[in-house]
From TrEMBL:
Molecular function GO labels: serine-type endopeptidase activity
InterPro entries to which the protein is assigned, alphabetical: Peptidase_S8/S53_dom (IPR000209), Peptidase_S8/S53_dom_sf (IPR036852), Peptidase_S8_Asp-AS (IPR023827), Peptidase_S8_His-AS (IPR022398), Peptidase_S8_Ser-AS (IPR023828), Peptidase_S8_subtilisin-rel (IPR015500), Peptidases_S8_3 (IPR034197), S8pro/Inhibitor_I9 (IPR010259)
Protein's GO biological process: proteolysis
Annotated family: Belongs to the peptidase S8 family.
Active-site residues per Swiss-Prot or TrEMBL entry: 156, 231, 596
UniProt KW Translocase keyword: no
Domain Peptidase S8/S53, residue spans: 147-634
Protein name as annotated: Subtilisin-like protease SBT2.4
Protein localization: Secreted
Domain Inhibitor I9 residue range list: 55-121
Record Gene3D superfamilies: 2.60.40.2310, 3.50.30.30, Peptidase S8 propeptide/proteinase inhibitor I9, Peptidase S8/S53 domain
UniProt lineage: Eukaryota, Viridiplantae, Streptophyta, Embryophyta, Tracheophyta
Span of the signal peptide: 1-27
Amino acid sequence: MKITILPSFPFTRVLILFTFLLLGCVAEDRDIYLVLVEGEPVAFQQSRGSYSKVSEAHAEKLVKTHEKLLATTLDTGSYSKVYSFKHIVNGFAVHTSASQAKKLKKAHGVKLIEKDRGTKLMTSYTPQLLGLPEGVWAQKGGEKNAGEGIVIGFIDTGINPFHPSFAYDPLNPFTSNISHFSGACEGGPKFPTMSCNGKIVSARYFSAGAQTDPTFNASVDLLSPFDVVGHGSHVASTAAGNYGVPVVVNGYNYGRASGMAPRARIAVYKAIYPSLGTLTDLVAAIDQATMDGVDILTLSIGPDEPPDDTLTFLSVFEIFMLSARKAGVFVVQAAGNHGPDQYSVVSYSPWAVGVAASTTDRSYSCTLILGNGQIITGVGLSGPSFVHGDLQYKLVMAKDAVKANGTFPRTTAYIDECQYAEALDFNLVKGSIVICSFSTGFLDGTSSITAIIDTARNLGFAGFAFIANSTLGDFIAEPIPFSVPGIMIPRTNDSEIILKYYEQQTHREKRGIVTKFCGRAAISEGRTASYKGRSPVVSRFSSRGPDFIDIKRNPTDVLKPDILAPGHQIWAAWSPMSVLDPILSGSNFALLSGTSMATPHIAGIAALLKQHYPLWTPSMIASAMSTTAVRHDNQGEAIMAEGSDLYRLYPSTPFDFGAGFVSPPHAVDPGLVFPSEYEDYMSFLCSLPNTDPETVQTATGGSCSIHSFDNPSDLNIPSVTISALAGARVVRRRVQNVSGKPESYLVGVVPPEGVMVEIIPPWFTVSPEGVQDLVFKLNVTKVLDDYSFGEIVLTGSLNHVVRIPISVWPVLMA
């Protein structure tokens, strides 16, 4: 299984084939296999947080049964056990061959076996954007108490413990105990055990799976919780970083950063490395984090593709998340970075909150000022090119400054893309604004902005302009901190204006060789933010629904993604080593985009809600965020989405944004919630079409005999999704009053096109902590060739408004 940390770094798990002759035979390749076996794990034989001697004895017993099963089933010397899972799931990981794995599959007591498919990364101002300072923070005594007593677990690339976002302030000690949590601090290279300082309360690393792969590189894949990538630090500080930390990059102050829950504690579980990541290490980390007692589990990593041999809901990864949910942990997961394609989500299950990414209203832009007064807007976090009053510099195109007699390949990388300083004439480019072109090297990933910056610095450019190529079309430009003046011009229309001016001002001989450069240009300040953009807008990369049940993308009756949060151009902590992104090397902060960045926003907000309502279950927390989410932007219009056509916006649907854009001030007082428990998820699984209840029971260890739903759409979640409504269907929901006062609700509905919706009862009164059953009757009035969308709105007498999105595909009767 591939796992993705969002934004997508190029972590590709490569299968290396070893072939050698042994006694005249070819040895089989080995892979890691995840095996679930019969028998109750430790967590569900005890109360959460009380790991007793009886529990420890049971854990030892499980380990011994794993070893006995392997020894009696597999050939001696044909395997090595990687992990035993014993807290929330009973099973193990084994490194062995396919033929030995087949033996295991047939062994008595084995419930499920799945080949490890690898893992991959999916990858400030947002507290103000989300209304936290004057909202939820204010209700708990401000930023000095926001998240107090809550532990957020992060399974990622580790953490940079020396970052000020994770510092402990002895003048502002923590006041709430976290006796429910019992983590540990594992030291190692660049991570002394004192790194667990009270803000970081636990740090572990999981590498046994990764180390079975020959691509594991001990020189960069540090065996400690230290983050050499930066991604894990970015995610952790977005959710729980300290309040008001100055964001300084290249000597420039971009403001102050804060996590969503700045007083929450941080528990680190490093399970992915620069060279690779394995599902084995990831699920081992989930098992440990749940055993330690985290309240919130943040997965900005996850499967990058659906399982190829089972239902999306019944893969090993999903079962581990279900078990964590059963143990009382709120699990939040990145929806994926495969947008804007439909059926591209990698968060499938209703027991984990899948987060989509949006823009904010903040943007960074700079301008290229031409000698004729024309101003071209572009992107680039750099200072201005002009100093000492010199507003204009000579404008030179890279291909016109290439050495005539140079001994280098005449490729675009040397001629157009400014990748190699040795190709350019120092006397022509020194002190000039140099035009570098987006060409084939940037399409295939062999060229980089980092190389342009190095060339600019080595040859003394006054600045560079990286422009679109009309042959290749527009490209996407994200603001990147430049250590030299620079600007990216991503639109071909703008680049053509620049080139037209350049040619008008450039004198050439008959052979086309430049005799005189008369064009002039300057680059303006690009580090000042503007707060005038339309927001939120669903980001182009953010994965879309509908949710699906198998690798053939057959849709299922669950709304995914669940919710929308800021995930575009997010400032947060970084690791100066930055081994996968040299352009950010030496930086303590990074501006990144991805559903990886959106996910910790929801994790931090969940921590605030858990602090406010300690007895709320994960489903109640998720429900509060969903039913109070907003579906309009800062201009009062319906939320729009970026699509496949660059620089155009499209109307969005719940398959883009889920329930809507998270609103913490409303989520803290939702009025009603939709509670769901483990038994409800089992009933959901058992009601899936073409699913054998025995398969469900075998995979999960749960039972289908308690009760079952008529349809998966009966799962008590705050949305209604029906992937094929033929004729009529009755859908049931149950709400609980959490407002503390009796309240009457009037039910309204905006029906999807082609569907009539009746709600019973049309109004009701519910007492504090009381519950109310609702029946939704849906009837097809018009057959359509796609989904249509609507919503149910419950308006309370105490001003609570509860919104339930409806997504239905009306089809012909069979």
